[in-house]
């Protein structure tokens, strides 16, 4: 029996107000109501994971098709920017709880290693090799060693985007929150001062001016 149709909420069901206030992002409740955009939160929730998967596809298909580590890193960076715009710095922390410096260092290490390691085997800088192995149901799988270089570039781009968002964007958020709190304190002090003042009992007019014509008439 559907109880909500008769105006009674069934056990476990949420009222309409709770559905309207449902969080579409993990850190959506940390934003002020005037800064939240439900449309942007829904779009971010629908697009973020798709963009991340597409960035990984570009990373692995960049050797023989358009893409690569840089293009894939840009797509993943745009996904992080979208997550930051929808939920602020707290949402960015939920989306990527990693150290940007660690990503930058790992990416540089992989890229540099992919360029230098071939020299130890008698090759040239950034020389690539193709490795083939039997993948079972997948058939013969070809692996190109330049993939390590692309992975390094991918990590560098993502780490750079994270570093920029956390240093510049998060600082702007903190400054805006501090300004908003200061404005609320000033408005609260002004309202208390206005409530504490009392109007003049004489209506602001001196008493001598009201009695002047009466005294002249008596003369």
Automatic annotation (TrEMBL):
It is found in: Cell membrane. GO terms for cellular component: plasma membrane. The chain crosses the membrane at residues 42-61, 67-86, 98-121, 141-165. It is a multi-pass membrane protein. Residues 176-219 are annotated as: Disordered. InterPro entries: CPA3_antiporter_subunitB (IPR050622), MnhB (IPR007182). Residues 208-219 have a biased composition (Polar residues). Residues 39-162 form the Na+/H+ antiporter MnhB subunit-related protein domain. It comes from the Bacteria. Keywords: Cell membrane, Membrane, Transmembrane, Transmembrane helix. Its main location: membrane. It holds the Pfam family MnhB. Belongs to the CPA3 antiporters (TC 2.A.63) subunit B family. PANTHER family: NA(+)/H(+) ANTIPORTER SUBUNIT B, NA(+)_H(+) ANTIPORTER SUBUNIT B. This is Na+/H+ antiporter MnhB subunit-related protein domain-containing protein. It comes from Litorihabitans aurantiacus.
């Amino acid at each position: 029996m559907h109880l909500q149709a008769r105006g009674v909420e069934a056990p476990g069901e949420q009222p309409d107000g709770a559905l309207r206030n449902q969080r579409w992002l993990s850190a959506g409740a940390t934003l002020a109501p005037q800064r939240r955009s439900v449309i942007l939160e829904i779009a971010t929730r629908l697009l973020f994971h798709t963009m991340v998967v597409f960035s990984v596809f570009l990373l692995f298909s960049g050797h023989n098709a358009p893409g690569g580590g840089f293009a894939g890193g840009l797509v993943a960076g745009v996904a992080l920017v979208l997550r930051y715009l929808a939920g602020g710095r707290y949402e960015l922390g939920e989306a990527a709880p990693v150290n940007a410096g660690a990503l930058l260092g790992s990416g540089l290490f992989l890229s540099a290693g992919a360029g230098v390691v071939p020299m130890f085997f008698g090759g040239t800088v950034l020389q690539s090799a193709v490795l083939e192995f039997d993948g079972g149901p997948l058939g013969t799988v070809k692996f190109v060693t330049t993939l390590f270089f692309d992975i390094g570039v991918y990590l560098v781009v993502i780490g750079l985007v994270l570093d920029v968002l956390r240093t510049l964007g998060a600082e702007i958020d903190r400054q805006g929150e501090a300004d908003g709190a200061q404005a609320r304190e000033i408005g609260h002090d002004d309202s208390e001062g206005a409530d504490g003042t009392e109007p003049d009992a004489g209506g602001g007019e001196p008493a001598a001016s009201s009695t002047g014509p009466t005294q002249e008439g008596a003369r």
